[in-house]
Design a protein that fits this description.
The protein has seven helices and no strands. Helix 5 runs antiparallel to helix 6 (127-141). By secondary structure, it is an all-alpha fold. The chain has two domains: 2-80, no CATH class; 89-162, no CATH class. The longest helix has 36 residues, at 87-122.
Length: 170
Amino acid sequence: MLRMIAGRAASGIATLVVASVVIFAATELLPGDVATAALGREATPEALEKLRERLGLGRPAIVRYGDWIGGVVRGDFGSSAVNGVPVTKLIGHRLVNSSVLLLITVALLVPLSLWLGTFAALRQGRKPDTAIQLTTLAAVGSCSRSRTRREWCARASSTRSPRSTSRWRA
């Protein structure tokens, strides 16, 4: 049992490392840099150079990645390039909200799942079992990737006024 847990933990860590390398490399390949994104296209060359220097963008990518991953291991995720706020502070209150949603979901769905599973098992091969199986498969298969949800999100985002999204511009 302990061996399996250690294997799963190692697999999870390896997945996180590979994902971080791929994401870091992909952002390096994008045109422009963080300084241009933060200051905008109208920024002066002096302001861009000053921000690039402050962010260490003149150093090799592998060195910047090593510094970042070392900070992550120590619990220091750095600061936002856009507003300078520590990333842990930006994530903090969102993590609290997500935790509340997680606890509510677990409190509701675990007992419901246990009850439905027991109910279906006691009626194995009969109509209630089949209905529960079909319902759960349909629910899992129709997650956020459904066409209706995509259309709703597209409609909701297209009805926003330009003024309401201006706070996200750099």
